[in-house]
Amino acid sequence: MLSVQQVAKMIDHSLLRPELTLDDVAAGCDLAVRYDVASVCVKPCDVAFAAARLAGTGVLVGTVAGFPHGSHATRVKVAETLAALRDGAAEVDMVINIGRLRAGRDDEVAADVAAVVEAAGPAVVKVILETAYLDDDEKRRACGIAERAGAGFVKTSTGFAGGGATLADVRLMRASVPAHVGVKAAGGVRTLDVLLSMVDAGATRFGATTTAAMLDDLAERHGARPRASGSAP
Fold this sequence. Notes:
Elements: H1 4-8, E1 11-15, H2 22-35, E2 39-42, H3 47-54, E3 60-65, H4 74-87, E4 91-95, H5 98-102, H6 106-120, E5 124-128, H7 136-149, E6 153-155, H8 167-176, E7 182-186, H9 192-201, E8 205-208, H10 211-221
Parallel strand pairs: 1-2, 1-8, 2-3, 3-4, 4-5, 5-6, 6-7, 7-8
């Protein structure tokens, strides 16, 4: 069984709900430090705040671009990416142009992703497919586009569409990209058993809001005392 530390470093603690206040973001950052997760993923307006709060902790700051629908103009996604990096983000989760992909305009989708990857430089870009809106062929094409553009991860979902991560989608995405490209599952990963099943399917990173509950569950299974204090905001 994976250790608590190993699973923690697979989690991006999600703080993207529109109603979250700065107090909520602060509490979420503190939880992320307590559990030593990979990162927090915050709204663009909260990046500088989170970066200051997490400075020196080893927990990275991530944010989103073109979120949640992917329909921003490319220049806007690039501007969001550059602003996020200036504010202290180390990772950017961008949403593809879903409508262009479904229309078969793959060159436009590729140019959109490549522009964000170029703007991000050494920062990690995760390309959100929003799988609930795509058929399997579209998912495979999107994975290929993300890989060729130099993205670090392909990601299932925003968590704001009609459906989130599924085992079938994780397996398909894992099979559609080479080993150096990670697969991030997000949307509906709320229990440890679901997370572990998705690890088995090939996921290497997770977007989660129930971080504390899942890691406390894993600690108990290992016979260790949970760190806890309830679930995240």
